[in-house]
């Protein structure tokens, strides 16, 4: 699918595809396809902690990962004070509930 990936500048990545793929942009928006920091990945690999990239992510968006608790399936983010758009990132907490009945009960509580 992808023949080449280039870092054009610090904020731009260029993908060259083998063929036209209308769903490429949509697929890149999926969680599993996110672009990660090579520098951070190399640090984790060197430390023998590659799996930490999923537990301690880095990024430049409006939120900073705080914690994920598997016990209550809650993920928590803090607002990123360094985000370019002032006031965009407020603290955020989300419950990840698989069962529809649990989601409904939580929403009605």
Question: How would you describe this protein?
Answer:
- The longest helix has 9 residues, at 38-46.
- The protein starts with a strand and ends with a helix.
- The chain has helices at residues 24-28, 38-46, 52-55, 100-108; strands spanning 2-9, 12-17, 63-69, 74-79, 92-95.
- The strands form two sheets. A three-stranded antiparallel β-sheet has the order 3-4-5, with no helix packed on it. It has a two-stranded antiparallel sheet with strand order 1-2.
- The protein is 25% helix and 28% strand.
- It is of the alpha+beta class.
- It contains four helices and five strands; from the N terminus they run ββαααβββα.
- It has a domain at 58-109: Periplasmic binding protein-like II (D-Maltodextrin-Binding Protein, domain 2), CATH 3.40.190.
- Sketch the topology as an H/E string, one letter per element: EEHHHEEEH
CATH first level of one domain: which class?
Alpha Beta
Pick out the low-confidence regions: none
Would you identify the CATH architecture of one domain? 3-Layer(aba) Sandwich
Q: Classify the beta-strand content into a percent band.
A: 25-35%
- Structural class call reads alpha+beta
């Amino acid at each position: 699918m992808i023949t080449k990936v280039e870092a054009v500048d610090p904020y731009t990545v260029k993908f060259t595809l083998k063929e036209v793929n209308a769903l490429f942009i949509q697929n890149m928006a999926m969680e599993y396809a996110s672009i990660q920091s090579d520098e951070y990945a190399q640090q984790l690999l060197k430390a023998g902690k590659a799996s930490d990239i999923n537990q301690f992510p880095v990024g430049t968006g409006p939120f900073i990962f705080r914690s994920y608790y598997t016990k209550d399936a809650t993920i928590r983010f803090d607002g990123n004070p360094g985000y370019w758009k002032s006031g965009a990132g407020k603290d955020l907490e989300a419950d990840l509930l698989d069962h529809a009945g649990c989601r409904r009960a939580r929403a009605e509580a």
